[in-house]
Design brief:
- The chain is mainly alpha-helical.
- It is built from nine helices and two strands, in the order αααββαααααα.
- It folds into two domains: 5-73, Arc Repressor Mutant, subunit A (Orthogonal Bundle), CATH 1.10.10; 76-218, Four Helix Bundle (Hemerythrin (Met), subunit A).
- The chain has helices at residues 9-22, 34-41, 45-58, 76-97, 104-123, 126-144, 147-174, 181-189, 193-232; strands at residues 61-64, 68-71.
- Strands 1-2 form a two-stranded antiparallel ribbon.
- The longest helix has 40 residues, at 193-232.
- It is globular and about 55 Å long.
Length: 233
């Protein structure tokens, strides 16, 4: 029986390109030239284009008419909007959780994710760290059964994943990461939903200045690196 492997290639490429965007190998605003990606991954243009379309749906990639695809470049205002929206959605998620009779399965899952986050921090594994936190904060939405909420939060997290990676990497280098996970777990375990919502909002508001500073610093570095190339051109 023939295996239709080519149908999976765009999804494989989507994940490969996504990882390069998240870890900053491909920088914000950088063009995603299909020919260069073909050479990099040894494939044809059609699956590359489909992978880029998938990344456009997630918000990581932007398509500009007659200019092609490029990594999404955010303004500071857009970053604030994304993070403040995240704060409100996560607080709303806590209100949804408050309607659940049995929180034990959710609390147990959150403790598991907290262990994943702690282990990643010990190993200084940025990918595992932000992945564990992502699942920690999405767990509540999944447990409520509110599919639109879970889907919206998941897409929002996908959009800000490069920002989260950038901040986590810099924070690990400086040894200054602080988590709210234990407090949120304790608040939910005690059904103190007001406290849990306050902590989720507080976390987002606390990391926002660091996100903006890290993104600004990375943009300045990009500009400095590009300047010699422009002068040579």
């Amino acid at each position: 029986m023939d295996v239709k492997a080519p149908a999976t290639i765009p999804y494989f490429l989507q994940e490969q390109i996504r990882e390069l965007i998240v870890d900053g190998t491909i920088r914000p605003g950088q063009p995603l030239r299909e020919q260069e990606l073909e050479q990099r991954f040894g494939t044809s243009r059609s699956p590359i284009r489909e992978a880029l379309r998938l990344l456009e749906l997630s918000g990581l990639v932007t398509h500009v008419q007659r200019k092609g695809f490029r990594v999404t470049l955010y303004s500071e205002t857009q970053i604030r909007h994304l993070y403040l929206l995240r704060a409100e959605l996560e607080a709303y998620c806590i209100r949804q959780v408050a309607e659940m009779d049995d929180l034990a399965p959710l609390v147990a899952e959150l403790r598991d994710y907290e262990e994943v986050v702690a282990a990643a921090l010990t190993r200084r594994d940025v990918r595992a760290y932000i992945g564990g936190l992502r699942e920690f904060y999405l767990a509540g939405a999944r447990h409520t059964g509110n599919a639109p909420l879970a889907s919206t939060l998941a897409k929002l997290y996908e959009q800000v994943e490069p920002l989260r990676y950038l901040l986590a990497r810099q924070s690990m280098e400086l040894g200054g990461i602080h988590g709210y996970t234990s407090g949120i777990i304790e608040a939910l375990d005690g059904r103190d939903f007001e406290r849990a919502a306050e902590l989720t909002r507080g976390y987002v508001q606390d990391v926002l200045p660091g996100i903006l500073q890290a993104y600004r610093h990375a943009s300045e570095q990009d500009a400095e690196e590009q300047a010699p190339r422009l002068r040579r051109a």
